[in-house]
Every structure is written in structure tokens, then in C-alpha cells.
Amino acid sequence: MKVLLVYPEYPDTFWSLKHALRFFSKKASHPPLGLLTVAALLPKPWQKKLVDMNVTSLKDEDLMWADYVFIGAMDIQRDSVEHTIERCKRLGVKIVAGGPLFTISHDQFDMVDHLVLNEAEVTLPLFLGDLEKGCAKHIYASTELPDLSRTPIPAWDLIDIKKYGVMSVQYSRGCPFNCEFCSVVTLNGHIPRTKAKEQLLAEMEAVYARGWRSSVFIVDDNFVGNKRKLKTEVLPAIVDWMTAKEYPFSFNTQASINIADDDELLRLMSDAGFESVFIGIETPNDDSLQECGKLQNKGRDLVECVKKIHGCGIQVHGGFIVGFDNDPPSIFERQVSFIQRSGIVTAMVGLLNAPRGTKLYQRLKQEDRLTSDMTGDNTDCSTNFVPKMPYETLVNGYKTVMNTLYSARTHYERCKVLLSDYKTRRASVSRLRLEHFKAFAKTTWFLGIKDEGRRYYWQLLLWTLFRYPKYCGLAIGFQVSRYHFSKVAKNNSR
Question: I need a labelling partner for 206 at 20 to 30 A (CA). Which of 30, 184, 411, 421 fits?
């Protein structure tokens, strides 16, 4: 059996980092971890190829080579998915599809031959068994949430890791919280399921064996969902492994704001090599936090929480939302003020959307406020429901927020706040790599000479050089990221 695994293309969005990747000669930010895991679950004798359309083009010859094309995707990739399905149908190639997009919206993809939904560790073996018997069905679905010990090491041999900016591994699935707008619990459950420390280290070792010596994203829904196991087993094991290997990786992940409550957890994460964490802060407005069920954020001094995490040498990348029913007219100014005071350099502000399967979607459906399915890109100035705030006010306020945050001056001021608060425990964070020197040469031309914000480019570099010279690599990275985010903000403001 010949199988072609296809990962559809991402549009130019906040997290695509397309404009930033060019400075590091990379094609895509992250590898298709889900498809690589699916490939490892397929029978070993099968012939397998993988085409990541974010890295290389998908050719008709690739499709015609295959007996089956496996497609895995998220909402944001829908346009590319639909085009890929059309090509397969035109060429008469059978399609097997799965992943979050198909699991949530399978009723919209009747043209797909076989829909293997939910978690592949459960449903893929059912499909493969029926396929071998010649009686494969159209849909395979399950409510079972599998033990992650059944998850194999991804088939890294199917990709060229040098094309990517960051490698990925997974430690857990699920989140103990249940925010109204989030589909994580719908997809992966309310109780975090984790891998054993030995399994996680084996996955890290597999990436290391491929020659990777840079950033690794732990793709969990909430990395700190099970704090006790992290502190007593997993993080100490990572610290030992990283120490023995002389810190070949730096880590980033996703977590909830309650990591700021646990000094031991922050210390261990810092010692293990974590450089950044994405946290859904959402809004400084407590009424809106109450509305969306983000109770873990409510009643806190969120600025101080962020600064505490920065003080442990871990950058906070923040997620923010405008468009809640309880958002006052002042919310746009308050969001900018909060982000500037906290020193969150990477701040993703999006318009509220209601994903299928969420509590928000169900509530808005009952209120007859839904207008369409979401695009999957909450930064494209679209929303799929009727907001309480006048739509034009909401969109114009949102555009102002993004253009303000990623103007050269405000970004420069935010970087200074972060670097002033930032205190790393590890020399490895400050280690300049060859890619930083290459990026510096490119940024000097594009951002230090051509860009209209070049004054602030040089001010930040000189300010960092004289005050915090060991963080010059971070300052270069901040500049490159701003270039991408400002491009996306300007494109979405048209």
C-alpha cells in the first residue's frame, strides 16, 4: 500500500510567522506532528511519503503515486484542504481525512472517502482493520480518550527538519479548565492525560538524534494541567537529560496563568530550559472573564503574574480577545495599556469567534446570533456572530489595537519592559547561535535601513547591548517577530 500524507497550507496569519522565517532561511514554523504520528501508526510495510504544503508544493505526480491520500488539518487550513480534496477527486485518488477540522466539521466533508475522526490511537486501527477486510466505512468516530502510552514516536524520517523553525513534541492532551470559547475540552477532554517521563524523553532523544539543536515546542493544550507529576517526575527528568546533553534545546509551550502561583514549578521549568510560554490572558476586564468562564484569571493582578514569570527567565506570549458581550468601549485602550505595562512582547489579540462544539457556539446558537462558521483566523477582522458592541466599533477598535501594538515605537517600549524584568537562571538562554548572526545581517538591511521604524531598531539593539548584552539574541528575535506581526496587522487593516 502506498500512502501520501498531505499537510495543507496555512494562510498568512499571526502564527504562520512567514515574514519572520525568511530571516532564518526556514520554510515553516512547525512540522506536522499529527500526521507524523499517524504515519508511525500505519503498518510498517506500507510505503509512505509526506508533503507539507507549507514547505513544498504538492504535485499531481505525488497524488497519482498514492493508493490513499491522508489529509490532516485545522480550521485555519480549510481553503487549502478544499483545494486539495478537489485535486484528489479530479485524479481519482481516495482520501482519508482526520484532525480537528474534520472532527468538528465532518458533516461538511461528505466528498471525503473515509473520515477517521477524534484521536487516531483509537479510530485509525478500526479503519485499518476494516480496510484490510475490504469493508472500510465512511466515518470512524469514538468518544474514547486513549492512554497516551499508545502514542508512537513520530516518523521524523519523512521530513527534512532543517526546513522548520521549531521542532515539536507532545507530553499531554486535555485541559482542567473549560473556557466558553475554547474547543480543547471538546476535542481532548477535561482531565489531562500525560505520557510517562521515559516516553517523553524518548521523543526528545529522537529529535536530538536527527541533529536538532534549537527550539522545541511542547504542543500541549495546557502543559501544567497535572502539576504534581510535572514537579516530581517529568521536569526533574528533563533537567537531568538537558544537563547531560549540555542543553541542546530550548523549550516553549502553552500553559495557564496559575503557573505564577507555584515558585517550585517556575524554577524547574527555568532549569529545564523553558524560554517562553503562551498564556491565554484574554482580557483585563473581570466581567468579561466571568462571562467566558476564565475564572482562573479572575481577581488576579495579571500584570504582576506576568512579571513574576518574566523574572524566572520565561517569556510570556499572551493571547488576548476583544468582542465579549461585557467589553466596555474602553476595552481597546485597556488592552494596549495592559500589554505595554506587562511587557508581553508577543501579544496575539484576536476578535472573539465561536468554534463549533464549544459552549459559546451553543449559547450563541440559542440566542440566534450565529452568522457563519469561523475562518479559523481570529486576527483577520472577522467574527462569526453578532456582537453586542456595534460591529464597526469593534473592528475599528481591534485594528487600532493591533496597529498600535506593532508600531515600532510601542514595540520598542514593550521590549524594554520585558528585558528589564527578565532574569534567566541559565547561561544557555543567552548563547548566540549562527542563525542569530545570519538574522542580524538580514535585519540590518530590512529593518535597520529600509524599514520606516529603523530608528527604534537601532535604539533597541544599542539599549540592550549596553544594559543587558547577554540578551542581544533575544532583542534580534524580537525585531524579526515584530516585522512579521506588523505585516499581518497592516494586511488585516486594509
Answer: 184
Burial of 456 (0-12, 13-18, 19+ CB in 10 A): buried
Provide the 10 A C-beta neighbour count for residue 235: 22
Contact present, 127 and 141 (Cβ < 8 Å): no
- For residue 202, the Cα-to-chain-centroid distance in whole angstroms is 23
What is the crossing angle of helices 472-492 and 454-467, to 10°?
A: 160
Single pTM value for the model: 0.95
Q: CA angle, 140 as apex, 137 and 144 as ends, to 5°?
A: 155
Among candidate residues 276, 297, 335, the one with its CA nearest the CA of residue 182: 297
Provide the grid cell at 482: 515584530
Question: What string of H, E and C letters represents the secondary structure of 56-97?
Answer: CCCCHHHHHHCCEEEEECCHHHHHHHHHHHHHHHHHCCEEEE
The letter for the amino acid at 209 is: A
Instruction: Specify whether the CB–CB gap between 247 and 426 falls below 8 A.
Output: yes
Reduced to 3 states, what is the DSSP secondary structure of residue 104? Answer: helix
For the chain, the 3-state helix, strand and coil shares in percent, each to the nearest 5, are 50, 15, 35
Question: 427: helix, coil or strand?
Answer: helix
Return all residues near 35 (Cβ < 8 A) that are at least 6 apart.
5, 6, 7, 50, 70, 72
Q: What is the pLDDT of residues 340-370, one digit of tens each?
A: 999 999 999 999 999 999 999 999 999 999 9
pLDDT in tens, 145-172: 999 999 999 999 999 999 999 999 999 9
The alpha carbon of 338 is separated from its chain's Cα centroid by a whole number of angstroms, namely: 22
Please report, for the chain, how many H helices and E strands are present, in that order: 20, 14
Pick from 385, 331, 329: nearest CA to 356: 385
Which residue in 281, 284, 309 sits closest to 179, CA to CA? 281
Domains of the chain: 2-140 (3.40.50.280), 148-370 (3.20.20.70)
Residue 168 backbone dihedrals phi, psi, to 5 degrees: -135, 145
